[in-house]
Amino acid sequence: MPSSTSKGAPLLLYNAWDAGSAKSILDAGANAIATSSWAVAEAQGYRDGEAIPIGLVAQIIARIAGTIDAPVTVDFEGGYSDDDRVLAENVSRLLELGVIGINFEDRVVQARGFMRSTGRRRRIAAIRDAAGKKGVDLFINARTDLFLGQEGDPAKSIGDALDRAKAYAAAWRVRLLRSRFAARCTSRPNLPMA
Q1: Fewer CB within 10 Å: N-end or C-end of the chain?
Q2: Could you give the C-alpha distances from 188 to 8, 13, 33, 121, in angstroms and in order?
Q3: Tell me, what DSSP letter sits at residue 155?
Q4: Rounded to whole angstroms, how far apart are CA atoms 108 and 116?
Q5: Are 33 and 25 in contact (CB under 8 A)?
Q6: What does the pLDDT look like over 43-88, one tens digit per residue?
Q7: How much is the pTM?
Q8: Would you give the DSSP letter of residue 75?
Q9: Burial letters for 13-43: b for 16+ Cβ neighbours within 10 Å, e otherwise?
């Protein structure tokens, strides 16, 4: 995220679900636009969890990115395919639209449960490769959802979540700051906290 972001002054990302909401968020002073998979899906009558077709997601993202002059990061769930080749193609579609960041979950695509770390590393490598071929330094928020919808004691998942975070950071040069994102974001003030 922006290099001007520092401890105590994070970049605040507000979620849009279409071009109109993205414009409103920027008009209110935001630096960048994020999307919410839930909001994008529900606004079109679909349930969250990759029920919305990837083609429709791409159309919505194209309208958002084509309407605003700010960085866009997309909640990309599990990549809309469990096939790494198709995942890379889906990422390439987003990159062609001008997206510079994605949230990428570790849930099994359109199912319950979580991917093993080895499969997850392979999938993020496919994303990095697709971005590299397009010459984009894509920001990947490699997200773990171990605590969502879980029954029982969440404290039992802390060790697994930390192990996943360490593996992701070691394997993919996870960086919190991206210069391209920073250049686009620093021209706008952050929205005040309510």
Answers
A1: C
A2: 18, 13, 12, 35
A3: G
A4: 9
A5: yes
A6: 999 999 899 999 999 999 999 999 999 999 999 998 999 899 999 9
A7: 0.79
A8: E
A9: bbbbbbbebbbebbeeebbbbbbbbbbbbee
